[in-house]
Amino acid sequence: MAKASVDLNDLPYADGDFYGFEQMLTERERDRLQEVRDFLDKEVRPIAVDCWNRAEFPMDLIPKLAEIDLVSPVRRQGYSNLFAGLVHAEFTRADSSIATFMGVHDGLFTGSIEALASEEQKQQWLPDIYSLKKIGAFGLTEPLGGSDVAGGTRTTARREGGNWILNGAKRWIGNATFSDWVVVYARDVEDNQVKGFLVDTATEGYAASRIENKISLRTVQNADITLTDVVVPDEYKLANANSFRDTNKVLKVTRLSVAWQAVGQQLAAFDVARRYSIERLQFGRQLASFQLVQSQLVQMLGNTVASMSMMVRLSQLEDEGNAKDEQSALAKAFTTARMRETVAIGRSLMGGNGIVADYEMAKIFADAEAIYSYEGTHEINTLVTGRAITGISAIV
Q1: Which of 234, 315, 322, 377 has the fewest CB within 10 Å, making it most exposed?
Q2: Per-residue pLDDT reduced to its tens digit, 187-227
């Protein structure tokens, strides 16, 4: 296509941070965030579209991710939740699939160990988890259980001597085709409570098969898991995972992370749409010179800034220890709805090129659908918020 010559880095607000939220970070955090951006520009962005097209995970990226050392930035490294959120947004901005890999390993899997394991278990397991020597997955969703899994977990755990016997199935489990460990949540047949177990994926009776033909997050290796009389020693039962209320401690924090993904996805769409509109010539003029195109870009930016504003405040509340479940639920519902609108505007702005992965926007558009759905659907998070403001539950 014909292009106008312009250095996008010289544009005002080149980083998309229209209100300067990054200035709220400490100098140490800003330097670290720039280090992350440089890493993503070098190691992730150049391979993202090709991996997505082939639906293959770049296994050689894992040692590089280990080297940059980003697992558990808040609990282990002492960074703020705002910093952690902006990092997750930047990962998503570079590639939603790699961000999801990190979200599964760091947020859901590592978060389960940090929140629900005993101190002895943490000392034994976390060093290899932090260093990515052991890759983790998170097994909660089931073939017949999604939004209702809190009270409808069908996977069972039966105590037998010094072991637990697990039977059942899990679905949509990210990383599970190649992970070393997976935290499996199963219903104890004795007391009917959902409990957590660390399962070695080499254990007899454990099987994972990749889910094929996805249109979203194609690089992520989601799997169907089957558990057939899987024996888990009692010392691998998470000591503090004894009910779904315990599981929800993990989900509250990771729901916040997914809302940050919605911010990153909008930043990605804005980046691509702005670049395209400046470089693309139509009727002998830059596409960006048309009023309707500028209106679309401003709408995309407005959605992004509104989402980021909510997330900045929620991250502050999390740092203070005052964030509530319903606040995470509202953030996930609101930011993903704005994200859906933003990526749709970006795809439309690019016309026919917007449906070709080579131009990036098609990938961004498709990946948004998974972010919209996981970690609680828009509808469920809306009802969680509705329950908080009315005192009445509309969830069956």
Answers
A1: 322
A2: 999 999 999 999 999 999 999 999 999 999 999 999 999 99
Virtual CA dihedral for 66, 70, 75, 76, nearest 10 degrees? 50
Q: How far is 376 from 396, CA to CA, in rounded Å?
A: 15
Q: Which residues pair with 170 in a beta bridge?
A: 225
The C-alpha atoms of residue 254 and residue 260 are separated, in whole angstroms, by 10
What integer pLDDT is reported at residue 244 of this predicted model?
87
Exposed e or buried b for every residue in 142-171, given b needs 16+ CB within 10 A? beebbeebbeebebebeeeeebbbbbbbbb
Instruction: Count the domains in the chain.
Output: 3
What element of type H or E holds 285? strand 285-286
| Residue recorded with tokens 């939603």 | 96
d(CA 151, CA 193): 9
Is the same domain home to 296 and 357?
yes
Instruction: Identify the band that residue 11 occupies on the pLDDT scale cut at 50, 70 and 90.
Output: confident
**Six-digit token string for 357:** 């992965």
Long-range contacts of 14-19 (CB under 8 A, 24+ apart): 16/267, 16/270, 16/271, 16/301, 16/304, 17/308, 18/301, 18/304, 18/305, 19/305, 19/308, 19/309
The residues pairing with 138 across neighbouring beta strands, listed in sequence order, are: 183
Rounded-to-integer distance, Cα 215 and Cα 19, Å: 34
What is the pLDDT at residue 245?
87
H or E, element range at 172: strand 163-173
Q: What is the CATH number of the domain that holds 66?
A: 1.10.540.10
Residue 58 CA to residue 329 CA, distance in Å, equals 32
Q: Domain of residue 51: give its range.
A: 13-130
C-alpha span between 261 and 245 (Å, rounded): 25
Q: Tokens at residue 164, please?
A: 């637990």
28 and 151 share a domain?
A: no
For residue 18, give the nearest of 292, 275, 268, 306 by alpha carbon: 306
